[in-house]
Please model this.
Amino acid sequence: MASSVARTWTRPAPTLSHPLVYLSFSHDASCVIAADASTVHWLSCDTFALRGLYQERHASRAVVAACGDMLNEKASTCAVVTTTRAAARPSGGSETTTFAIRRWRPGYLNYHWRYDEWAADIEAVEVRAIGVRGDKTFLVLDGRVDVYGLAGDGRVHVLHRVETCSARPLCAASRAAPVAIAYTGSEVGEVRVERWAAAAGGFAPLSSFRAHSSRLGCVAVSWDGRFVATASFKGTIVRVFHAADGMLLRESSTHCLKDSILKMAIASESHQAHCSCRWMQLRRGADRADVYSMAFSPDSKWLAVSSDKGTIHVFSVNVDVSSSSPAQEDIHNPDSDSPNAGSALNAKQPSWYFFSGFVPGYFRQDGSLAKFRLREGVKYVVAFSHHEPNTVLVIGMDGSFYRCEFDPVKGSDMKQVEYRNFMKMK
Model:
């Protein structure tokens, strides 16, 4: 039952405590979503006013993941996954773990037990992430992605289930309707893209392609669902694909330092008469980098990338899809990180747009338009402001929040315009 509460409501207790167990942005980047083991806060990126609160009341349950679209006070939707660890069996068996998902529409108090919408138990070994888009809820689990929703009988059902690579399952969804999702396939380096088909009442496959010869480290989908960005597990290459067919969008030429190995394939002169594109493959040294997050700008002109190297990079994705060039022939090199290495997954061989240079000390930094240096080793999540042009938002597991601006023409270092620590706010 809803309670009448004044709009001048201030942030209530309990405050967040270290360590955070989950951190993300709402899907429109209007809110920071931060969770410790027992509470989740939805904080406005503009005012840091509390827009949503989840407080777990049972000591045996712990928060695993949280999300929210936070569209407005009446249409917002939040969801939280909690886990319950049961005691070990008397016979000596190991303890069991169960998960539950709870989804609701927040009111002014935003407590889930006041505005409960639906709840469901989850059969899974581990829950990696959760997302909401309209009336659908996405769960990234070990080995699969489940899409929950209300069926015709008014009850919660798994509307769609896809098998993924169990090593490091990934899934990303577009902001705009109809929803497009990109997820890791069952093969190493494979990406599958599907789009919601309202007429069919389910997801319809769009494309399947080999993005990298190694397993994937990160996946992102543009707001309108046209583009898919992937990062290799090695952390040195980011590629952007056309979601519908995996065709080439654009290509950037870079140079590498002597610590790296340059592998380049140039189309023959006769082929260049019909296709002027060429591709260059860069590989780095022995150390690897973890790409923590990637995000497209609302207009798909920019892509932001964060990694454990402590530098945020912004790349230009100014692509004219109508003038895209056909794919190049692959050089069959087992050591190459080419997306075409191995057998093709599409009738058309996918092409790619790659960036390099976001691993300091290995590649020149001219691969990215702008960069912002932070503390190395901290997990940072990036997003673009939904209403401020050329503005990147960065949140860290240490409680840091940065608002940075970049020059879309000159590039270079981004300008920090705001810093907060949301863990210390009263």
The two ends are 28 Å apart (CA to CA).
